[in-house]
Amino acid sequence: MKNIQKAFNKAKEENRSALITYICAGDPDMNTTKKLVLELVKNGADIIELGVPFSDPIADGPTIQRAAQRALKNNTNLNSILELVKELKKIISVPIILMGYYNPFLKAGLKEFSKKAVANGVDGIIIPDLPPEEAEDWIAAAHSAELDTIFLLAPTSNEDRILKVAKICRGFVYYVSILGVTGARNELPEGISGKISNIKKHTQLPVGVGFGISSPQQVKQIVSTGADGIIVGSAIISIIEKNLEQPDLVNNVGKFIAELRTGLSR
Amino acid sequence: MTNNNIPLPDEMGRFGIYGGLFAPETLMPAVKELAFEYEKAKNDPSFHKELDFYFREYVGRPTLLYFAKELTQFLGGAKIYLKREDLAHTGSHKINNTIGQALLTKRMKKTRVIAETGAGQHGVATATASALFKLKCEVYMGEEDTRRQSLNVFRMQLLGSKVIPVSSGSRTLKDAINEAMRDWIANVKDTNYIFGTVAGPHPFPMMVRDFQSIIGQETRRQILEKEGRLPDYLIACVGGGSNSMGLFYPFFEDKNVKFIGVEAGGLGVDTDKHSATIGKGTIGVLHGAKTYLLQTLEGQITETHSISAGLDYPGVGPEHCYYKDSGRAQYLSATDEECLEAFQKLSELEGIIPALESSHAVVQAIKLAPTLPKDTIIIVNLSGRGDKDVQQVAEILNKR
Q1: Which of B120, B55, B116 is CA-nearest to residue B387?
Q2: Domain that holds residue A148
Q3: What CATH number does residue A214 fall under?
Q4: I want to staple A49 with a disulfide (CB 3.0 to 4.6 A). Which of A22, A106, B170, B332 is the partner?
Q5: A201 within domain boundaries
Q6: How far is CA B132 from the centre of its chain?
Q7: Chosen from A65, A75, A76, A129 to mutate, greatest number of chain B CBs within 10 A
Q8: Is A266 within a domain?
Q9: Checking DSSP bridges between strand A18-24 and strand A229-232, what pairing results, if any?
């Protein structure tokens, strides 16, 4: 069984949703990212999502944009991120997913990158600007390297698109909860549970819900919609941002994750 | 309106290996709906009738094809004609596309439009069409560009649009597009994105080309009337590439008509301060399409430079990439300095102040004409007028 699936199964056995945490690799620097990942895992993250910074992140709000800018200033790139994953996988076994825009992967060479990613311990990849229609080369490269390809569905996705994504998705389906870019929101929309059950009609894969989720209450609300995984990103990055150059940065992130974790049980 | 004998793009929006539809999932239904609605409109004679009406009665088409006698005599070689898109309403070719897309927005029953703008020409053209067709309009513009083009910011506001300065990234056109895309993702239900150039996800490269093709169609007819034959060269500036594609496309099958696209050479294409995407770029994916890009070896988009805000963009329309690879068009560049000289030269000789963008095309005509026999015909697309640039040029020249 593959790592991502295992993580979802474990959460299910414990009668809860899985917690998927996103931070941007290299924000504020690689060494801190390493400490942060270990802290996230220690406090209950089931799956780690590492952002691959890109100069033009069109699906991201200001918080993640700023994180990417900080990471790019440190010359963070795919190679240094893969090195970090290799280091981390010597210590932890939780699945690690990279989330990034298509161009850096394309530039690295899809086949070459896929092989190298798997060799370094990456379990899956999310590419928010690569829809199924354009993903043929990517799927061939990733699947032949046994790399999970996670695709996104949105409130605007119709039945036809759900089917398309279900066919090529591996690991889990990423459901975007809101119409909009990433970033914490005070309120999440209605109707998520209907959408999730609709997606589940077409796939056995777990469904992770992300975008906008920032508090234990919201985690609880999304758990009640039947989501198998809850993805939190911008809210964590906000804490990193508030604690830049503070000795408590890693600790404060850990505390926040422990709080989020309380909202996970069914 | 369109020249149907050219089967590009294919149904995936691809021009050879370029183009396509690389959009976040949230936008996919919207861009597909747009492609579907555009296809319907394209095949609906009443849409063309409406478009023709506004082109004639509102934009002031056909624009003139003017024989630049003074410039021709001064250079002493090929005959130079100017396609006077600077005479179109709002002062540039951008209005051709915004009228088309605003009409389409009405057909789709959407009430709000957004746009990106660099020099402000597309922003002004979108604001104008929005005023005319009673659409709510918000224009994203890089903070740096709002400073360079403050007159156009005020024009947009006067036309009832809101201008949103973008302070992320390099604060220019690329970042304005990022921000407009983010807005579209969040407001896709009631909002249409009026994209200003032949780049972006399908159907934009095709649709904007089709609306701008009126330039080439008129030019073809006008030069046949005046000279009884087709031109030897078509020259136009290329940022995203809409005015050049609009001129070139209707001549695609006329293999004896040579196309020259002129990119912004900035401080020189061997420095890191230019916007010569086709000349110096490599293949990648940005803003919804596979295209040439100015990027690092690691796939990060680099910051560009040009004296003209409208050419200051690290990508280019996919169809231009296809023209470049197939050899159908040649792409050269003009530096800021050459552009300034051409700006002044055309003003002095012909009494026509060209936009800094269009001045890049004039540079190439000035270089090429003296090398050619007198019976050769060059047509330069004068895509916009230079009033908006006068203050910036005055500042530069006063410093000397």
Answers
A1: B120
A2: 3-261
A3: 3.20.20.70
A4: A22
A5: yes
A6: 22
A7: A129
A8: no
A9: parallel
